[in-house]
Design goal:
Blueprint (H helix, E strand, L loop, with lengths): L1 H13 L1 H5 L3 H11 L4 H10 L4 H11 L57 H9 L5 H14 L4 E5 L2 E5 L3 E6 L5 E5 L10 E2 L12 E5 L7 H12 L1
Length: 232
């Protein structure tokens, strides 16, 4: 099994230069030059460069492993004894190069999400600032919700950032330790959602919620849950 994973990892890395114009060393240098050091920030930055989530997540893992591959042997780059790689959950596999970057092009870093109708911008920016270190994750959540439900508009409502298309279907509460995304997911959320709890002593706007504190939770299943909530 490990040999299969190592082969998938080698294939992914071997295709980087052809698919993106930079090899692994180039991307490791680019990450270092970006100034980001936190896991979520690096993944979010790579997403802005055009990477899909799974590829961005795997490059971040390699970066925090001092540029060494995770599964494949790479004896040419000894790991400095002064720095140990951060622990990683290895339950998911490295990305396969099944879908090359056929239309890949770097993207400029996204500005904070625009506001519906040009109103409530200051209020939303204040709510985003409440997330502190999780603000990049909060902005990423909003972008991904808009990707799942095109035309989604945001507005500030008390302590929540409301999502509407055109009717409200989700609400985001920001805090430094975790984000809460409220919605009525229905049967689609049976495995991931939990009963909604109040936020900042404010009643929950929907019956269920997702607790988000890691960018890895914003996956394809998350997008399906958002679409299910918007369709209810």
């Amino acid at each position: 099994m490990s040999s299969d994973l190592a082969e998938k990892e080698r294939e992914f890395i071997a295709g980087l230069a052809e698919d993106t114009g930079r090899d692994l060393a180039g991307w490791m240098a680019a990450i270092a030059e970006s100034g980001h050091s936190q896991r979520n920030d690096i993944i979010d930055w790579l997403r802005h460069q055009g990477f899909q989530f799974q590829w961005a997540s795997w490059l971040e893992r390699i970066h925090h492993n001092d540029g060494r591959l995770i599964y494949a042997e790479d004896s040419s780059r000894p790991l400095p004894s002064s720095r140990r790689p951060a622990p990683r959950d290895m339950s998911d596999e490295p990305p396969a190069r099944a879908r090359p970057f056929s239309n890949w092009k770097p993207q400029q870093p996204a500005s904070p999400p625009p506001q519906a109708g040009g109103t409530g911008g200051d209020s939303i920016q204040h709510l985003l600032s409440e997330a502190k270190g999780l603000r990049p994750l909060a902005e990423h959540v909003i972008r991904e919700i808009r990707r799942a439900v095109p035309g989604t508009e945001t507005s500030a409502s008390g302590v929540f950032i409301m999502m509407s298309a055109p009717n409200p279907f989700a609400a985001l509460h920001t805090a430094p330790q975790k984000l809460r995304l409220y919605a009525n997911f229905g049967p689609a959320g049976a495995k991931r959602s939990k009963p909604a709890e109040p936020a900042s002593k404010t009643a929950a706007p929907f019956r269920e919620m997702l607790v988000l504190n890691d960018v890895r939770l914003i996956d394809e299943d998350f997008l399906r849950l958002i679409q299910a909530a918007a369709a209810r």
